[in-house]
Amino acid sequence: MIVVTGASGKLGQLILQELLKSVPASQLVAAVRSPDKVSDFAKLGVQVRQIDYTEPHTLETAFTDADKVLLISGSEVGSRVPQHANVIDACKNADVKLLAYTSILHADSSPLPLAAEHLQTEILLQESGVPHVILRHGWYTENYTDSIPVALEHSVVIGCAGEGKIASATRGDYAAAAAAVLMTNDQANRVYELAGDEAYTLSEFAAELSRQSNQAVRYQNLPQDDYSHALQNAGLPQSIALMLAESDIGASKGGLYDDSKTLSQLIGRPTTPLSESIKTTLIA
Asked: What is the largest CA-CA distance in the chain?
């Protein structure tokens, strides 16, 4: 039995889709806060169990017969460590054979402030005695392609990443990696640094967008505070805007770069090229 937490999210749904290619639906559990959001999976025979990272008793119930659990990191930045600790404790009590965790690229040396909670979770995993595998994710390409309509409207991509190289991959690439690990034996105590095969700067991102859209789009590098304020003016909550600006600064320091090609080796194919992601967004 494989339990996927956070299964109603964009990544979680993709992971379930990947697992369903090889695992009977009856052996999969979608553990979610809102069961109605995974009704399509329930119709396929996937078990649905309601959980809340802040309510340990829900976790104990959800993990009762689990062999493997995938902990997709919580979305509430600042509150994730105690939430993850609850999941780890529940897995220990349920004698789970493998707990996989989605961390952040180079969590132990990353300049991104986001890495702190991930590293703390990794330490909790190490101290727990629960057999575990760590999937350290780089950036999602969608973090940039989702903003393409706005970039085309204003003919500019904004950020504060300077000329930092970003080795992103799509959520689909990371989902394939998670499924591969969950379906492979002897994964305990492994740490995977997962990132895209190719790396690009935001200037190169803007240039590729210009080429494919036949519209001149430039990259404007802003001071961190100016970028944060621009994101807030665009409607993002202050906390999210600050996080994105801090992450761009981290990217400028190499925090989103990795050239090991571990991800493509794990999934048995090249990661999705930036050009393909941009093309898909433009024709959507």
From this structure: 57
Domain map (residue ranges) of the chain? 2-137, 143-165+197-258+271-283
Query: What confidence category does residue 76 fall into, taking pLDDT thresholds of 50, 70 and 90?
Result: confident
- Rounded to the nearest 10 degrees, the angle between the axes of helix 171-182 and helix 10-19 is 50
| This prediction's pTM | 0.95
What's the burial of 262, exposed, middle or buried (CB within 10 Å: 0-12/13-18/19+)? middle
Per-residue model confidence as pLDDT tens digits over 199-257:
999 999 999 999 999 999 999 999 999 999 999 998 989 988 998 999 999 999 999 99
Per the listing, tokens 């290619």 go with 21
DSSP states of 118-139:
HHHHHHHHHHH---EEEEEE--
Four-way CATH pick for 143-165+197-258+271-283: 3.40.30.10, 3.90.25.10, 1.10.1840.10, 2.120.10.70: 3.90.25.10
> What's domain 2-137's architecture?
3-Layer(aba) Sandwich (3.40)
- The angle formed by the CA atoms of residues 163, 164 and 170, to the nearest 5 degrees, is 120
Q: Are strands 68-71 and 2-5 parallel, antiparallel or unpaired?
A: parallel
| Section 12-22 average pLDDT | 97
Residue 124 is which amino acid?
A: L
pLDDT of residue 77 exceeding 90 = no
| C-alpha span between 259 and 254 (Å, rounded) | 11
Q: Report the pLDDT averaged over residues 73-83.
A: 87
